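Task 17 of the worksheet. Students: predict the tertiary structure of the chain below and write it out as structure tokens. Keep your answer in the requested format; marks are given for formatting as well as content.
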Amino acid sequence: MRLTAPALAPSVVTVRKLQSQGVHHITLVGADRQTSIDFWEGLLGMPFVFEQPNLDNPNESHLYFDPGDGRLITIFTNEERTGTPDRTPTDPGCVHHLAFNLSQATFRQAVERLDERGIHHSGVKDRGFMDSIYFNDPLGLTIELASYRFEPPHGFTHAEVLLEAHKLRVERGDYNIAPIHLADAIELLVERSRESLSSSRGPADPSHGRETAPATPETY
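Model answer:
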């Protein structure tokens, strides 16, 4: 009689995440060295922090710029390369655009300062939770200048406010995030994270319905 080996139970493969903790750097293929310096530092104000050979291609230099948060935008350059301003591909897998954060003070100067250089741009676009301006770099990559319309509560990030605002938008059946969702999200985050001695955390009318005197400069 032939004995058969007992069937082995299928092995269970355990998969785990590789948890990211932020963008480390973004690397782009550039043309010549000076074009990269003029654009990334001369226009966008990113300090040129260091340079070394491309360690995988000795024919290229590798330029590093600080976009303002201590992370890096890096560019491979070659003095024999020339670029064209044609729009870079937007096929699946390609980069559509890069967005950089501006303060509201700087954002309000963006149109004038792009116009000074004759750079064609989209003008200010209303994105609900932020303002945006789009234009192409000298090699055709679309750049977005973005400026948030809100400050997150202390201890929270912009992303955490947006997550809460998204939940409110969906719950209310609204099309996109608007200032009312941001304001309500900020209020909820503060209420959940800060204790109060008040018996009620709900909104109240300090005038109790009474008409108040109009404010004048002399009032202050």
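Marker's comment: The mean pLDDT is 93. The beta strands are 25-29, 48-54, 57-65, 72-77, 97-101, 125-126, 130-136, 142-148.
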